[in-house]
Amino acid sequence: MIKLIRLEWRKNNNLKYIQYAGIMTVILLLFMIMMARELEAEETIALYGKGMLDSSVELFAHMSYIIFTGVMIAAVLVSAYEKKTINLMFSYPIKRSTIILAKVCAVWIFNFLAMVVSKIVIYLVLIATKSFTGITAESIPVGDALFLLNIVLKSAAMVSISFIALPIGLKMKSSKATIVASVIIACLTQGNIGSATLVNNIPFYVILFIAVAVSIYLSVYNIETKDLL
User: Fold this and answer.
1) How far apart are CA 7 and CA 140, in angstroms?
2) What is the greatest pairwise CA distance in the chain?
3) Which residues have CB under 8 Å from 146's CB, separation 6+?
4) What is the DSSP string of 105-135?
5) What single DSSP character describes residue 13?
6) Whole-prediction pTM value?
7) What is the 8-class DSSP label of residue 143?
């Protein structure tokens, strides 16, 4: 499986996606630097009871990477069905389900690591530029183990949620449908209407994780005997 995952990274030019993730991180960082002073202002603290810097970093990083993961799902998985190149891969002496799971793992691992690194880089640069942004070290406790654990767990959760778009793309054999589904998932899970929001809604996320498990199961269900043509 590890060899298949590495093969997927090489075949799909992982360096290209590393560059894209780097560009996205820089854009997010510049945006947060511009917003930091306002998010940590006394008025914001008086209104919400705390500064909103870390919450905003999480929000925009999650939305960005849910969509970015959807783009990679479309490129690595769905496009193989769309262009019928998956037929050649399924002619190899390897279980079809193993091939699909290797692709899923390749996308998941890359985006999980990219999101964790992006968040940490953003937080460290914000602290390094605190003389400009006006924030304090207490606003971003990077040295706190619970803070770092929170980054890891939320990143894993958000990347996993992105895979709800997978069966939609496979069913329609459309990369565009996969990306559109990812945008909808990002808006639904991270957006809000007035004061109503599903962000950090534990029961909702439990339902989503069940949906993710079902989505991946449907992607490999009966695939060994399924007529691909």
Assistant:
1) 38
2) 63
3) none
4) HHHHHHHHHHHHHHHHHHHHHHHHTHHHH--
5) T
6) 0.85
7) T
The residues with which 193 forms a beta bridge, in sequence order, are: 196
CA distance 213 to 162: 12
Question: CB–CB of 20/68 below 8 Å?
Answer: yes
Residue 26 to residues 16, 30, 126: CA-CA distances in angstroms?
16, 6, 12
pLDDT tens, position by position, 89-146: 777 778 888 888 889 999 999 999 999 999 999 988 888 887 776 666 566 777 778 8
Location of structure tokens 């709800």:
164
Dig out the tokens for 79 from the structure: 């496009």
Q: Helices 145-161 and 202-220, interaxial angle, to 10°?
A: 50
- Looking only at the bridges linking them, the beta strands covering 192-193 and 196-197 are antiparallel
Residue labelled with tokens 């945008």: 183
Q: How many residues would you count in the chain?
A: 229
